Structure formats: C-alpha cells, structure tokens
Amino acid sequence: MKILILGLLFVTSTLFGASIVNDTCPYSGKPAKETLTHTISVCCKKCEKRALKDLAGTLARVTDATKCPFSGRKGSKQLIIGFCCKNCLKKGKNQGN
User: Fold this and answer.
1) So what's the pLDDT on residue 37?
2) How far, in Å, are 2, 33, 85 from residue 70 at the CA level?
3) Phi-psi bin for 16: left (phi > 0), alpha (psi -120 to 50), beta?
4) Alpha helix segments (H runs only) across the chain
5) 46 φ, ψ to 5°?
6) Which residues contact 21 (CB under 8 A, 6 or more apart)?
7) Domain segments of the chain: what residues?
8) d(CA 49, CA 80)
9) Can you give the pTM of this predicted structure?
10) What is the rounded distance in angstroms from the CA atom of residue 71 to the CA atom of residue 41?
C-alpha cells in the first residue's frame, strides 16, 4: 500500500509540475537535481517551515513518507526534496528507517 501511495505522489507531482523545495542537496551542499527526488509529507504549515529549516534532520526523522515526521499525523502537504546524486538520494530514503 505504501508503494502505491508513494507512486501516486510521484506521478501527481510530475504531472502537475511540482518542483523541488531545495536548491542544494541536504547532505553535500551541491546543486540539487530535479530528477533525483524523494517525497515526504507534513501535516501543516508549521511543520513545513520546520522541515525546510533542516532537511537533513527532517529526513532522519521520517519513518513513513505518508506521515508527518514531527506530529506523526497523516501528511496533507508533500515536500519534494532534491538530491545531487544517487548516493545522497539513497541516504535520504533510508535515513529514518
């Protein structure tokens, strides 16, 4: 079920032109690429601001990409995080697990 939801998030964001929320990779500081992304969810504007302040720290808290890493509630807003390379992307996807 999680794979289906994450797939739908990716397709939706791709079709509607959603862009990444960061300019630089949260791990290396190098420019982020639009093609290397990971989508997480947050529940509200307050959690969105908190997530954007420290993307690497936020990724470390994620245990379920459909739930807010701060409140644990179902996410209503998706944040698409860009990475510079496949290694950083893999690290981002595996951080909270």
Assistant:
1) 96
2) 19, 26, 26
3) alpha
4) 2-15, 45-53, 55-61, 86-94
5) -60, -45
6) 52, 55, 79, 80, 81, 82
7) 2-94
8) 14
9) 0.78
10) 11
